[in-house]
Amino acid sequence: MKALIERIRKEAVYIGNGIIKVDGFVNHQIDPALTTAIGREFASLFAQAGVTQVTKVVTAEVSGIAPALATAQALNVPMLYARKHRPITMANGFYLAEAPSHTKGGVVQLMISPEYLGESDRVLLIDDFLATGSTIEAVVQLVQQSGARLCGIGCVIEKVFEGGREYLADLGVPVITLAKIDLEQDAIVVR
Amino acid sequence: MKALIERIRKEAVYIGNGIIKVDGFVNHQIDPALTTAIGREFASLFAQAGVTQVTKVVTAEVSGIAPALATAQALNVPMLYARKHRPITMANGFYLAEAPSHTKGGVVQLMISPEYLGESDRVLLIDDFLATGSTIEAVVQLVQQSGARLCGIGCVIEKVFEGGREYLADLGVPVITLAKIDLEQDAIVVR
Prior knowledge:
Chain A is built from 6 helices and 11 strands. By secondary structure, chain A is an alpha/beta fold. In chain A, the strands form 3 sheets. Chain A has a 6-stranded mixed β-sheet with strand order 5-4-8-9-10-11, with helices on both faces. A two-stranded antiparallel ribbon of chain A has the order 1-2.
């Protein structure tokens, strides 16, 4: 996606150790026009890839919410985000999966209420980053627990050097990313 | 806002102790069309209230992100969400405020990077709930630390019985909410 790739080239900062700062338009401050365009791009690319009749866009809090909402707006289906802390309103059981925590060490728990995801759902999973794929794998587990059908995985930015695409290959669904970042001689290359 | 009020009347569940479950369209699962309409309604109502030239919509993660993004889309200005955990990319100092935590007890910290908020900004603060006002007060403190000007506060749902509107009155800015929930004889009344 040209506008996204150009924005990353212009504003992303490579901090080292594989960490790329895109806080100015993806992770902390959000560019609404770019986010709207990202949602439309996912809707268009998944349609081209044969992913149709999606009933729900699923993501994990926090940073997946903006691109997932924009995709849900484009598809006009509900967006559901996995919670990391069980709210008091999630009283009647929940699907639960664990993913390694990048910021705190240990694991982070992800929860979805069975009220909003079930066997009749066709799910598009959207997140901001495809890195190792382990957070996405945890959301996939939630989808599988619900009996819903996973139809595709879309991530705004792929960190190619972390190998998430290979990790998710066994799922047998289209994995679409809008910008791919690789490391060459300790600098980032964006495609 | 009629569509929102009707949705609350139809789907919200009163759990007791002042807790209202709107997980089906606000807090866990998000209705994209309703969220888009909420953003447009805030843009329209704040313009009518004389709040103009907003440069930034500010909220706090997690559940403020969806309505804040929709408002930012309607106004076509960036949306910035206060983080509860400092990401590794937030390296060069940050504004910090604390709010009582409803889920965990104790306090939750909220952080904003000075890179994205400063003296030239005119801020519209958007959140999902106006309850006691203490989370919003913490975000207001972040805005004040930055030197930006707070121009208005918008919340999707006001829990009238928790008194947040009185708590925020001293700020001297318009406080606009789209649905007002009160408690009468231990049942909710939505206006």
